[in-house]
Amino acid sequence: MSAAPNAVTVALLGGGTVGAQVARLLEANAADLAARVGAPLELVGVAVRDAARPREGVPQALLTDDTAGLAGRGADIVVEVMGGIEPARSLILAAMAAGSSVVTANKALLAADGATLYRAAAENGVDLYFEASVAGAIPLLRPLRESLAGDRVLKVLGIVNGTTNFILTKMDEEGADYGAALAEAQALGYAEADPTADVGGLDAAAKAAILAELAFHTRVTSEDVSCEGITEVTAFDVQAARDMGFVIKLLAVAESTGDGGGVIVRVHPAMVPRDHPLASVRDAFNAVFVEAESAGQMMFYGRGAGGAPTASAVLGDVVAAARNRVSGGRGPGESTYADLEVRSIDDAMTRYYVNLDVADRPGVLAAIAQAFADEGVSIQVVRQDGHGDDAGLIVRTHVASDGALRRTVERLRTLDAVKQVLGVMRVEGEPGT
Ligand code: NAP
Ligand code: HSE
Fold first, then answer.
1. Less crowded by CB within 10 Å, the N or C end of the chain?
2. Domain 348-427's class?
3. Looking at the whole model, is its pTM more than 0.90?
4. Ranges of H-type helices in 139-278
């Protein structure tokens, strides 16, 4: 089937949760999209593994398992929504070599090897857009890449994984079982093909790397991100947070170091005060705060996962790339000129919650306080519950370097008085903020 003479052709690699919605919306919104681009968008093929299996909203005649053939046929725009590193990377490079602009939602690939994709886009004079790779439907990368290009970003902090936020919400509000909540998130199309990327924090780490690279004009990969997922978060932690007026969230943080010469990028669960705006971000919603020198604080909020919300972001990029085709323009390229040092989480300034099982006898509290003092960590709150010969002790600290807090916990583990360190978690945001 040949395309209309002035049509902007679109080839879709992947027809799953996101791809099927992109195909549906290209058809359903065709007239509006044509008016916005200045030319009709024509879907010329949808590559999948199993082309014989029908997909709702995707014409059967467009399905193909010849993925390399579709990627390299020279469509104006190739949309990659397959996921994974290979063959996605090779297919994107082949598409660019054939003169196609590329739109992708693939944060794993961008965070692992975005530099190769940017280089190929520049060499071939094509666009690379990837709004859907972070925070689903929420316009976040374009504001960082374009709207804030005249400012200096200081910090990016938020919830960027819908699956884990869904699970933590269910555990907090309904006392739900972790496994059942994960299965529900998978059924709703939020989770990655391998959900360990979600619960292990790797999906959020990839997104944090992409955000950090755009915000700080510095090359950041997944390997630069300090990453902890939610697999160690227990029902006890969730209840303890509740009792103290906190809620547990998986946070991604990218921040400038105090001296301005470095950047720290981290993903970990954290206790957030219940009156903090992030505490009210529920289910698969995402929210990201951006703090910039001149603009001040901004918050971006919306649906962070799911087929249709993600397809909305993909289509925004398709329209941008199509407009460039029609006008002869180009989108923004790589901006990593600042080349800041990516520093260890040890340098990050955070607060800790430490839950201890301790012997209930005189002098125990003093020994524990000494361990904190020896590392220069100031205690904010101590709460003790006696039970038999043991006592449960919960300590919350003031701000200190993450390295000092980690070493304090190592010291606590060596004390006779400490029977077990039951839980350790970072605390983000002051109550009332
Ligand atoms: P998905 O439902 O698993 O769909 C993947 C699609 O790619 C399927 O149609 C699959 O074909 C096809 N595919 C995979 N490997 C292939 C191969 N080697 N050759 C040909 N076709 C192949 O995944 P998804 O949830 O749509 O996610 C797609 C991408 O979007 C990923 O990079 C993901 O990280 C990203 N993303 C997803 C969401 C979300 O909420 N789901 C949000 C933002 C970004 P079959 O159907 O035949 O198996
Ligand atoms: N698995 C991802 C999430 C999809 O749960 O946030 C959106 O990137």
1. N
2. alpha beta
3. yes
4. 141-142, 162-174, 178-187, 196-199, 202-216, 235-243
